[in-house]
Design goal:
Elements (H helix, E strand, L loop, with lengths): L4 H12 L7 E2 L7 H8 L6 E9 L5 E7 L6 H8 L3 E3 L2 H8 L16 E5 L7 E5 L5 E6 L3 H5 L2 E3 L3
Parallel strand pairs: 2-6, 3-5, 5-8
Antiparallel strand pairs: 1-7, 2-3, 2-4, 6-7
């Protein structure tokens, strides 16, 4: 199967990480967590929302991998980070990840972000993450997220 360029970049990053997860491109949208759950046919909580922020002082990219059912309390994450978070705009997001909002994967970014993982994702055996485009996803065991992303598991809500 031929993947789009962005989806192939994610598939290559998965392989480079020593994993065998497969990116699939779906006919329905996966742009939002709700769209993804509907298109895939899974629970909203199984969707990994990849949210890009930046450190308020450091301007370093911060990746939050959040369960589709949750909203982030930025102050909680800021305590783990040691600085406040600021919203990343579309230009910053594309610059540091190489991907457009709506298809941000948990790995394969141009710059390695500081990564935090919503502890609620680990309640699920399998989770689904974006894979570079609003139509591409891959599934993986939730327990693999910390290893795959070098992320720290934290409370985000």
């Amino acid at each position: 199967m031929n993947l789009s360029k962005s989806a192939q970049r994610v598939q290559d990053a998965i392989v480079a990480a020593g994993c065998e997860f497969s990116v699939v491109e779906l006919p329905g949208s996966t742009r939002t967590a709700e769209d993804s759950a509907n298109t895939i046919g899974c629970e909203l909580g199984q969707i990994v929302k990849s949210l890009i922020f930046k450190g308020k002082e450091s301007c370093k990219p911060i990746l939050l991998l959040v369960s589709g059912k949750n909203r982030v309390k930025e102050k909680l994450v800021a305590k783990h980070l040691g600085e406040k978070l600021s919203k990343a705009d579309a230009d910053f997001t594309r610059e540091v990840t190489g991907f457009a909002i709506g298809g941000i994967p948990p790995l394969g970014h141009l710059e390695t972000p500081i990564t935090f993982i919503d502890e609620d994702l680990l309640e699920y055996e399998t989770v689904w993450a974006a894979a570079g485009t609003p139509h591409a996803v891959f599934s993986l065991p939730a327990s693999k997220l910390p290893e795959l992303t070098n992320g720290q598991v934290v409370q985000v809500k």
